[in-house]
Write a structure and sequence with these properties.
alpha/beta; Aldehyde Dehydrogenase, Chain A, domain 1; Aldehyde Dehydrogenase, Chain A, domain 2; 2 domains; 7-stranded mixed beta sheet; 5-stranded parallel beta sheet; globular; binds nicotinamide-adenine-dinucleotide
């Protein structure tokens, strides 16, 4: 069937306009009146409380309770998977266009409620105004883009004719799956990784991060408002120790759509590979994992532009992006000049509450805060601390934007993902050495180059091993449908969210041959 929707465009950001930012403060005040509520599980369309709760607190002001989410228990895993199993045949049998319309509707509701959603992001994750709006915009984009992409999978796939026979290859849903998103793009990745399998006819159990469960409850309200049938998307909030293995290993869950750390991803990979007693199929895992993303700056680069891009890529959302620049690799000839420019810009960053739209806000929780400070303390022994390196303020999980130079390329700071506002600056002898350093970790997610030389840009295109390479711009902020996102190596299975092949992952092809 032809695509009935208007052409896809990325949802624009507007909060950079002062009058919009001012108006957003009113939405934040309204949002504050919704804080502290209880949010249920949603299983087969029923709202369920369990007598157990997980609390979500504002990382910028830890005394502020964002809400309590019901903590699912072991029995709810079976109930949720059963609800998804019950709903799948009818949902999967619907015409693609009906499911695509449901996504278009989700996008429209989120567009109408964008400032309410953005306010939740500010309170629950400590996103400043632009980061919050961008996350909402990305969630809208995923729905709009996948609605249109789904229509391309509705047809019989092109194959060659064979005399005397009819041959058709068509796509069908895989079945029931588990969706496990991280907390950092709390709305966008959660929505994107859930609606992609759903639009292609699968049903899912969504298990959000216990660090940001409230936005998931809000999303389920929108799912209900959009008219999704009961059981198509089921929500289990709760503790990973109770839910993680139980969902991954469940005999009826056929795929796991995971985004998160390498450590968790590898556990899921291993557990999903093992066949359980009543399991009659191979589980598929889609694992989008961490990064140790590098920006290379050579001696021909526009150093002011490079410093702007480095600081934006490193400290946007406190460095808590899989795409965040955590290594700045600079050719010796301009190393010191760039260092000064980066420091000047870092000194201008404001650290404070997300509600006040600070540049750098609190990191997500105490565990992450302690982990980041641990990285910083260990790095102090071997590298040169140029700026930051300590807690920044009271009241929340604030860490100063931190820069180390003279970092040993083999050290922990140069090799491991910190996932916080910490940058390792590495000195390269020349451009060849810079590429070698950039490729010298187990990750291959995002990366970038600042250079004015055409042949170096061409070499970087070929030789820098990352799933998303950015030239002469910042290395974060991929756009759905424009920059399909996902890496290689330990950065994951390269499913390329927001790309033209993504939906195909959640479908199986069937070929029928009839001889006449
Ligand atoms: P995480 O691995 O701690 O958690 C990810 C999800 O897995 C959460 O929902 C968590 O509750 C769940 N989980 C934890 N233990 C589990 C278990 N044993 N079984 C099943 N589920 C379990 O990661 P995080 O801290 O939430 O997210 C940050 C990480 O995600 C970083 O490494 C970041 O680079 C990565 N990330 C990658 C991408 C990408 O597209 N490649 C995008 C965003 C974030």
């Amino acid at each position: 069937m032809q695509n009935p929707f208007e052409p896809y465009i990325n949802e624009p950001y507007t909060v950079t306009k002062p009058e919009v930012a001012e108006a957003f403060k009113t939405h934040l005040q309204e949002g504050a009146t919704r804080l502290g509520q209880d949010w249920p599980l949603v299983i087969g369309g029923e709202h369920i409380t369990t007598g157990h709760w997980i609390e979500s607190h504002d990382p910028c002001n830890t005394s502020r309770l964002v809400g309590r989410a019901a903590a699912a228990q072991a029995e709810h895993v079976d109930q949720a998977v059963q609800a998804a199993l019950d709903a799948q045949p009818a949902w999967g049998a619907r015409p693609m266009v009906e499911r695509a319309r449901a996504l278009a509707k989700l996008a429209a509701i989120m567009r109408r409620r964008r400032w309410e959603l953005a306010a939740w992001e500010v309170y629950e994750a400590g996103k400043n105004y632009l980061e919050a709006e961008a996350d909402v915009a990305e969630a809208i984009d995923f729905c709009d883009y996948y609605a249109r992409q789904a229509m391309t999978l509705d047809d019989i796939l092109p194959t060659h004719d064979f005399k005397g026979e009819e041959n058709t290859t068509t796509l069908q849903p895989v079945g029931v799956g588990v969706v496990i998103p991280p907390w950092n793009f709390l709305l966008a990745i959660m929505v994107g990784t859930a609606v992609a399998p759903v639009v292609t006819g699968n049903t899912v159990v969504l298990k959000p991060s216990p660090k940001t469960p409230i936005i998931a409850g809000v999303f389920m309200d929108i799912v209900h408002e959009a008219g999704f049938p009961a059981g198509v998307i089921n929500l289990l909030t709760g503790e990973d120790a109770v839910l993680g293995d139980a969902l991954v290993e469940h005999e009826h869950t056929r795929f796991i759509n995971f985004t998160g750390s390498v450590a968790t991803g590898l556990k899921i990979h291993e557990k999903a590979a093992k066949i359980r007693p009543n399991q009659q199929f191979l589980k598929k895992t889609f694992l989008e994992l961490g990064g140790k993303d590098a920006l290379i700056v050579d001696e021909t680069a526009d150093l002011d532009a490079a410093a702007d891009a480095a600081v934006a890529s490193a400290f946007g959302f406190q460095g808590q992006k899989c795409s965040a620049m955590s290594r700045l690799i600079v050719v010796d000839a301009v190393h010191d000049a760039l260092l000064e420019r980066v420091k000047t810009r870092m000194e201008r960053l404001t650290v404070g509450e997300a509600t006040d739209n600070a540049d750098v806000c609190a990191v997500i929780d105490e565990t992450q805060y302690q982990k980041i400070l641990g990285f910083i303390d260990r790095a102090k022994a071997t590298a040169t601390l140029e700026l930051g390196g300590a807690p920044a303020r009271e009241g929340g999980w604030y860490i100063q934007p931190t820069l180390f130079s003279n970092v040993d390329p083999d050290s922990e700071l140069a090799q491991e993902e910190v996932f916080g506002p910490v940058v390792a600056m590495l000195r390269a002898r020349d451009f060849d050495h810079a590429i070698e350093l950039a490729n010298g970790t187990r990750y291959a997610l995002t990366g970038g180059l600042f250079s004015r030389l055409r042949d170096r840009i061409e070499r970087a295109r070929q030789e820098v091993r990352v799933g998303n390479l950015y030239i002469n711009r910042k290395i974060t902020g991929s756009l759905v449908g424009t920059q399909p996102f996902g890496g290689f190596d330990m950065s994951g299975t390269n499913s390329k969210a927001g790309g033209p092949d993504y939906l195909r992952l959640f479908m199986e092809a069937k070929t029928v041959t009839e001889r006449f």
